[in-house]
Q: What sequence folds into this?
């Protein structure tokens, strides 16, 4: 079904895979010896990155993007950062959508206050504003911006438009602010992995089934981490572009950097239908292209899949699940116990029916993955003249944009769904992150959305409330709905593949969107609500730092949803200090109090007062050779968290900025789950430390002294950093290190944050 190659491969003429160890075959096929360096330039990804690189070499990329997109959880903070750093207008098309906090249901006026801020910013700086319920951000970018050979940057992790020939990247807000300040996205040239597709999906197989099969194969081993996934091979053309979009958006869950697909006549037809035929570009790998790895996928062998809690990679064929139902559910219950930590109770075995089936309580088809036209059509066909029953199970369907919604409506397909008992909702991302259709306590939800991380669907274990999500394709969700909530594979129905031609009409956009690109109106006043606050000022780094461990998390992975919870918490995204109150609240509820206490110590230190606790610490520091004369005036005090592997999931910068505004100075890890979370830490002035060895020498409330860190950053000597755990009246040495940082990243951390980097004029030094 899915095969991973060991080592690199050559792709010859787009159809012949040659393992690097057998490179002599390249000469047999082409008449020329394999030239690895030259063949690396033959990937689609190389050509796109080269055309957007402003640097004079391809090893260290400095990218400028064609367009950007943000939603209403992130655009306020991004614009506030850029404003504070001197931005006067948007220098590239910037789309501000209202698809996350659309409901305006929590926190009084604050969500719609953010929307009005977005509209006023689009007018003032020359942007494009998409009001609530009109379009999910990624569907809008597919319809209006993505095209062959482009690069798009978004502040949502699922910024993926590879099926249209666009390399899109989801990053934290700091990276978007840099583009608004006409700076660059700096990254080492990434590896490129070939995703070689053959065969054709069965009629009952949908894009989520293919995506989950790939997820299962590549996530845990990090096969494509921080690399570009390049989809090639004859199987690409067996799927429509709308179908490919559904596969592509899930590449984010592999922790890859970006994705891109070869294009064909169907890509051209998709763009032409959306009035953008000129944005089509034929993209194919060169006659000989070298890839750093290869994932072979036989599409014909894929069967309907289900990803059990608590990750998209925890995937099984539905038939495989049923063959081992009790054993698999028992293991999942054990994982639920770890997530709940005794604060809540979640069960699955009690959902097995008398005839050995699994009863679920909720179905959702939504967002950038599930709400596509093709998926909703297939669901409507499966439910036509059927009903979902009068029991616990219910189904909600969210078309991904108003144009998709209106065409489904004109064809009568929404009526078929509603007649069956489904609820049709507007374009909204809420079910994906816990702000819409949150399930009942101890309920199991099946969703064609992007993630099923712990507590992301809205659970609050600390309040004794817990539910969980399985990911499935819309086809199997519809089959389950037709079976009154009994988990059912789409393979059991015979109604698939009859997709009427989509008739795109953007009248809703023409009549409602604010289209202000390149028409900035600087006289416009930004509209602030009472919850929209400026970023608090941050201080530059001192020569030495003293860290107090405020949380220690030994989970295999810590998601951004755990670092800063989603759901109703999102309402406070425009208030840095208000949002910070929720940091780690569902994973380590004591963290905020500990971090604030450390921040208070730093405030006293800056005011010239040395609390006795700190005086005792410095007595120990002064026993370290070379540190005899160091005193509190030389050392900034801040909190740190230790986590084995933080940052899987969302791109939102608040996962890092909340730590920073509470006084955080660093993260200490074994590994960063994603490049974007590590970038968020650096853009907010926190050192992205790694620990050599196990975290057995320090615990929560211990101090870690790091002498000479500023000089180490200045001199780029980061591979071996001596640090000392101050505990029980003595100093115990530990070894830290930092993976390569760009020169401007090192300066940003020294300056204390990206805003300071610009305020102090250092951005000009790296222009």
A:
């Amino acid at each position: 079904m899915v095969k991973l190659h060991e080592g690199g491969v050559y792709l010859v003429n787009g159809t012949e895979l040659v393992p690097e160890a057998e490179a002599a075959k390249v000469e047999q096929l082409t008449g020329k010896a394999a030239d690895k360096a030259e063949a690396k330039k033959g990937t689609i990804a190389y050509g796109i990155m080269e055309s957007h690189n402003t640097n004079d070499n391809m090893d260290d990329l400095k990218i400028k993007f064609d367009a950007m997109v943000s939603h209403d959880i992130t655009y306020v903070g991004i614009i506030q950062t850029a404003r504070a750093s001197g931005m006067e207008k948007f220098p590239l098309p910037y789309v501000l959508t209202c698809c996350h906090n659309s409901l305006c249901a929590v926190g009084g006026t604050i969500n719609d206050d953010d929307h009005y801020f977005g509209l006023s910013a689009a007018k003032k700086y020359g942007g494009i504003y998409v009001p609530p319920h009109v379009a999910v951000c990624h569907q809008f970018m597919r319809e209006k911006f993505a095209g062959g050979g482009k690069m798009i940057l978004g502040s949502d992790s699922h910024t993926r438009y590879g099926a249209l020939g666009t390399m899109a990247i989801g990053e934290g807000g700091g990276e978007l602010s840099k583009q608004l300040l006409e700076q660059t996205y700096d990254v080492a040239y990434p590896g490129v992995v070939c995703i070689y597709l053959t065969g054709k999906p069965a009629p009952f197989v949908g894009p989520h089934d293919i995506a989950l099969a790939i997820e299962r194969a590549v996530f845990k081993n990090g096969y494509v981490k921080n690399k570009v996934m390049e989809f090639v091979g004859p199987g690409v053309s067996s799927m429509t572009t709308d179908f490919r979009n559904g596969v592509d958006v899930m590449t984010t869950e592999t922790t890859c950097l970006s994705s891109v697909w070869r294009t064909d006549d169907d890509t051209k037809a998709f763009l032409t239908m959306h009035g953008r035929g000129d944005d089509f570009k034929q993209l194919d790998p060169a006659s000989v292209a070298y890839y750093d790895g290869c994932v072979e996928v036989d599409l014909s062998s894929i069967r309907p899949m289900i990803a059990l809690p608590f990750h998209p990679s925890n995937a099984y064929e539905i038939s495989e699940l049923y063959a081992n139902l009790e054993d698999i559910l028992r293991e999942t219950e054990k994982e639920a116990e770890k997530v709940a930590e005794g604060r809540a109770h979640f069960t699955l075995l009690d959902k097995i029916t008398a005839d050995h089936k699994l009863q679920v309580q909720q179905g959702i088809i939504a967002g950038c993955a599930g709400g596509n036209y093709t998926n909703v059509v297939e669901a409507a066909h499966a439910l036509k003249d059927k009903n979902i029953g009068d029991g616990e199970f219910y189904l909600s369907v969210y078309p991904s944009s108003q144009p998709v919604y209106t065409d489904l409506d004109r064809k009568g397909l929404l009526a078929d769904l509603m007649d069956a008992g489904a609820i049709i909702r507007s374009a909204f991302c809420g079910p994906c992150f816990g702000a819409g259709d949150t399930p009942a306590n101890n309920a199991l939800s099946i969703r064609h959305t992007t993630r099923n991380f712990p507590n992301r669907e809205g659970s609050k274990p600390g309040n004794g409330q817990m539910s969980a999500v399985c990911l499935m394709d819309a086809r199997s969700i519809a089959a389950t709905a037709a079976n009154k909530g009994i988990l059912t594979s789409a393979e059991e129905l015979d109604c698939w593949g009859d997709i009427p031609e989509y008739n795109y009409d953007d009248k809703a956009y023409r009549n409602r969107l604010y289209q202000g690109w390149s028409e900035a109106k600087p006289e416009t006043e930004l509209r602030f609500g009472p919850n929209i606050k400026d970023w608090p000022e941050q201080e530059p780094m001192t020569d030495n730092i003293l860290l107090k461990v405020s949380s220690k998390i030994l989970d295999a992975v810590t998601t951004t949803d755990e670092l800063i919870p989603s759901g109703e918490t999102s309402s406070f995204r425009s208030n840095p200090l208000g949002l910070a109150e929720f940091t780690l609240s569902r994973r380590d509820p004591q963290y905020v109090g500990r971090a604030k206490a450390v921040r208070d110590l730093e405030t006293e230190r800056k005011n010239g007062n040395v609390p006795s606790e700190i005086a005792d610490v410095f007595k120990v520091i002064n026993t370290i050779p070379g540190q005899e004369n160091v005193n509190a005036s030389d050392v900034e005090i801040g909190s740190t968290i230790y986590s084995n592997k933080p940052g899987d999931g969302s791109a939102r910068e608040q996962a890092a900025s909340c730590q920073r505004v509470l006084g955080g100075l660093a993260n200490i890890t074994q590994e960063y789950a994603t490049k974007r979370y590590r970038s968020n830490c650096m853009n907010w002035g926190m050192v992205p430390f790694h620990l050599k060895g196990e975290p057995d020498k320090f615990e929560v409330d211990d101090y870690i002294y790091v002498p000479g860190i500023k000089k180490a950053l200045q001199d780029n000597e980061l591979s071996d950093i001596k640090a000392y755990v101050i505990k029980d009246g003595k100093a115990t040495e530990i070894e830290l290190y930092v993976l390569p940082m760009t020169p401007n990243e090192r300066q940003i951390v020294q300056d204390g944050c990206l805003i300071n980097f610009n305020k102090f004029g250092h951005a000009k030094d790296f222009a």
